[in-house]
Amino acid sequence: MSALIAEDEIIHEVELVWLEDTDALDYVRQSLDRLPTRRGKPAYHRDGRMVGYALLGPEAKPSRSSGTFRRRVFWLLPHDRDTAPEGLYATGAPAEAVDPRTLAPGSKGRKTGRSEGGPQSPELRELGITLPL
Q1: What Pfam families does the annotation carry (predicted)?
Q2: Model-level pTM?
Q3: Which among 114, 111, 109 is positioned nearest to 124, based on CA atoms?
């Protein structure tokens, strides 16, 4: 869950790779997965679909016990707002969801009015960005 991701757990991120246009997404779910490599597209074993993932720099060290790396994966489930706009998350968002516009390598992102299904955030209005709800 995003609330459980600490900034020091993602300090070795060097890039976020998006598999979809995030402008069309109000939120993405994020998790820290144990993966065998620092880079490359990870295997995906959840319902729904993977929409992005993080790449780690060479200074990232594997776990001593498992030899794996903790990398962020961004994903959505079939009942999320992008495919079910009037469904469970017509308003509100899952605990692990953040607005993809607030994400950057090494930054865990945050919820916004848009990700919660409410009015646009003041930051977007300030930038003159108008997004449909």
Answers
A1: DUF6009 (PF19472)
A2: 0.85
A3: 114
* Radius of gyration, alpha carbons of the chain: 15
- How far apart CA 41 and CA 95 sit, in angstroms, is 24
Residue range 50-70, pLDDT digits in tens: 999 999 999 999 999 999 999
Q: 115 burial class (0-12, 13-18, 19+ CB within 10 angstroms)?
A: buried
